[in-house]
Input
Amino acid sequence: MHGPASPGWLLVAVCAATGAYCLLRMRSSDERQRRAAGDEALMGFGMAVMAVPGTAFTPPAWVWPVYATVFGGAALRALWAARTGSHHLHHLVGAAAMVYMAAAMAASPAAGHGHGGSGVPALTGGLLVYFAAYVLVSGARLLPVAGVPGGAGTVAGGTKAGNGTGGRAVAWGDRPELARACRLSMGIGMLAMLPAF
Output
């Protein structure tokens, strides 16, 4: 990604940390969560590599078609999985956005992949609207909910932080609010990356 180096490195760090946490979430005993965590780890690390400032490292030209192929496969997998749950549609949009950005990088890797004087392309604008809405909804889900049984430690969705159902402690890798925070950070990352395309 071309642009100022400091914000680029910050984006790399956030996306890589999110990808690493998602790898840890793959140890969950819940199969659905393991699959979602794997998709999110791929997205986090993919975004981290794509966000590396162009002044530090310019990948060889063959990287972007490989990116498009990997994330195209992820998009097809998410499309297939969307039969069973709507969250897979978000994975589909995220993977499609990565294919779009990889195609833009392949088309003009050294030109800063800006859109010139013609304004924001319609696809970029549509993705920006989607991820802005996703970030707002995800952020709202992380806010504490007053009046929900469970008291002050309750997060949106009714899960008490640190406790699972029946008073059992929930492993930190299985905590839904941490998974939501990861998704929120990747949504913010997409909002930071997309304007360059």
